[in-house]
Amino acid sequence: MNQETIIKINNLTKRFPVGEGEFTALKNINLEFFKGEFSGLVGPSGSGKTTLLNIIGSLDSPTEGEAIVLGKQISKLSHKESALLRNKHIGFIFQVYNLLPVYTVFENVEFALLLQNIPSEKRKKMVNDALEWVGLSSMANKKPDKLSGGEGQRVAIARAMVKNPEIIIADEPSANLDAANAHAILKTMKQMNKELGTTFIFSTHDEKVMGYLDRIIHLRDGMVEEDEIINVNHAP
Amino acid sequence: MIRFLLKGILRDKSRSILPIAVVAIGVALTVVLSAYMKGAFGDMIDQNARFETGHVKIMSRSYAENKDQLPNDLALLGVEALKNTLDTEYPQMEWESRIKFGGLIDVPDEEGISKGQGPAAGIAINLLDENSKEAQRMNIETSLVQGKMPKKSGEAIIGHDFYEKLDLKIGDVFTFFGTTMEGSMTFKNYQVCGTIRFGAGAMDRGILIIDIKDAQEMLDMEDGTGEIVGFSKLNVYDDQETQIMAAEFNARFMDDQDEFSPIMMPLRAQNNLGEMLDYSNFMSGIFIFIFVFAMSIVLWNTGLLGGLRRYQEFGIRLALGESKGHIYRALIFEAILIGLIGSIVGTCIGLAGAYYLQIVGIDASEYLENSSMLMPSVLRAKVLPYMFFIGFIPGLIATVIGTMLSGIGIYKRETARLFKELEV
Description:
The complex is a heterodimer of chains A (236) and B (424).
Chain A: E1 5-18, E2 21-34, E3 38-42, H1 49-56, E4 64-69, E5 72-73, H2 79-89, E6 90-93, H3 105-115, H4 120-133, H5 149-161, E7 167-171, H6 179-196, E8 199-204, H7 207-210, E9 215-220, E10 223-229
Parallel strand pairs in A: 3-8, 3-9, 6-7, 7-8
Antiparallel strand pairs in A: 1-2, 1-4, 4-5, 9-10
Helix pairs in contact in A: 3-4, 3-5, 4-5, 5-6
Chain B: H1 2-11, H2 13-53, E1 56-60, H3 61-65, E2 76-77, H4 79-89, E3 93-108, E4 114-125, H5 134-137, H6 140-143, E5 144-147, E6 155-159, H7 160-165, E7 173-179, E8 185-196, H8 201-204, E9 207-211, H9 212-218, E10 224-225, E11 227-232, H10 239-253, E12 262-266, H11 273-309, H12 311-319, H13 324-359, E13 362-363, H14 365-368, E14 378-379, H15 387-390, H16 392-412, H17 415-421
Parallel strand pairs in B: 4-9, 6-8
Antiparallel strand pairs in B: 1-11, 1-12, 2-10, 3-4, 3-7, 3-11, 5-8, 6-9, 7-8, 13-14
C-alpha cells in the first residue's frame, strides 16, 4: 500500500546537559510516521516519549540526526518558522487540558485561528464546526472552570482540530479522565482520524488508549524497543 | 488579536486592577508631589519676587553690596531719567521704585504723651498712582484686615499685630522717627488708614506701608530711591531672559569705578533664590527619577509574579503556535495599555489632589511664626499644564520597563526548556 510519510526521523539523538555532564534522552532513533496514522509512544517515565514528541512538535531540536516533519527539517527552523509549523500544521492535546481560564470555550478554540489572521466570519464558522464535532456547541460561552474533566478535554480536542492540522500530538490525554470520559474522547479522536485523515501521535501508558492505537512504539531508555503494528493498513 | 488580549486583561483582575492600581498610585503621588513642590517653591519665589527682589532689581552698586542694612545713603539718584531709559530699552518690563526704611513708631495718647512705641520696618511703594500695579502686586488690598487703602498723602497702612500691640485705632495719628538719606533725623506724622496681614511671618512683624512720594519727602530722597524693581508685563519669570537682560544692562550702565552706578540683578542672583530655583528643578527631577526607578522595580516584581501566574498560559500559547517574540510583544502591548490606563487614572487622581492642595494648601504658619524667611504661611500646590502628562513618564515607562525586564526570561529561553518550565 502506498503511504505518504509525513514524519521521518533519522539517527536522532538528543542529549541534555546535566550539571557538568550530559543525559542522553534519545539514542539513535529511526522512525517514520505516515499520514493518517493513529499511533502511540509507550514506555515508562524517562524513556524519552515527551522528548520525542517535543521534537516532532518543533518545540525542541535534535542534538544529532534529523527529524523531518511535513518536509521541514526541525533543526534548521528558526523560532518563528517552528512557531508557524505548530500554528498551521500541528495540534496539541495535553494531560491537563490546559485551557486558558479567563476565556470562554469559544475563545479558547478560536485562539489558534486568531494567530493565523483568519477573517472573523470564517473563524466563527470554523470554531462552531469544531465545537459541534466534539458535541460542545451548547457550552460555547462557558468558562473552563464550569466544565467537567471530559468536557474540558473535548474543548482541548476542538482547539487542536479547529485549524485542521495534519498532525495532532496528544500527551497522556486520558490520564485525568474516568473510563467513560476517556473512551468518549478517544472515540472522538478516532473518528477525527478516520473522517479528516488527521495523524495522531500519543504518548501514553494507559491501556485504554493503547486499545485504540493502530501502532504502538515501545520506548525504553531513549531507544525504540519495539515498533508494534496493530492495524496493517498503516504498516511502515 | 488585540480585542482578544483586551478581554484577557479585563477579565483577569490580577492582570488589570492590581497593576493599574499600582501605576495609578505611583502616578498620582508623582503628580501631587510635583505640583506641591512646584507650588511651594513657586510661591516662595513669587512671594520673594513680588515683595523683595522683583524679576530684576536695580540698585546702586554699593547699595547692592550692603542691601541688608537698608543703606538709603547709598540710594540711586536721577531715578526718573533712569526709569525713562528702562521703559524705552526694556518695554516688556514694568519698573517701579521702592524705598525700604527702618525707624521707630511713637503713638501719643490724648494729651500728646507717648503711650506706646515700637520698631517699624517700612516700605514705600507707588500707592497713590492709579496706573501703578504695586498695590495689586503685593496683594495689599486683599490682605487688609481693617480699614482701607491710602487715598492721599500722609496715610499709612500698618501691620495688624503691630497695630494691636500699639493699641491704635483706624484714623489715629502716629509719628514715625527715622533717618534721612543724608543721615539726619527725621519724623513725620501719619494717619492709620488700614491694617494688614500678609500671612508671612517675616513681613507681618512691624510693617509700615506708605506712598513712595511721602517717603522721598520724609527721607530727603527727591528723585532718589533705594531700589527699582522690574516685573515682566506677562507676570512670568523667565530665568534665562532676565539673566541676559541683567548682563546686557550691566555691560552698558555699570561702572566698576563708580560705586553709585546702577547694577541690575536678576531674581536668581538675590536672596539665594538661584539655589532655590535650581533646587526646585533638581528635586522635581529627583522625584520623577525615584518614581520611575522605584516603580520599575515594583512593576518588575508585579510583572514577575503575574508572569509566574501566567506561565501555563504562555506555554499553551507557545504550543498553539504563537512565537516567543509575539508573546513578548503582546506583553509589552498589555504593559502599554495598563500603563496608559493607570497613568490616566493616576493623573486624574493626582490632579484632583493637587487642585485640592492648590485651593486649601497646608497651613505652616505655626512653624513659620518666628521665621525670618519670606515664605507664605500656607504652602499650596500649583497645577501647571505639564502636570497633565508628567505622570505618564513614570506610569508608562516604568510599566513597560518592568514588563520588558520580567518578560525577557521568556524571550531568551530555549522553547523546549521554557515549555517544560511552563509545566504544560
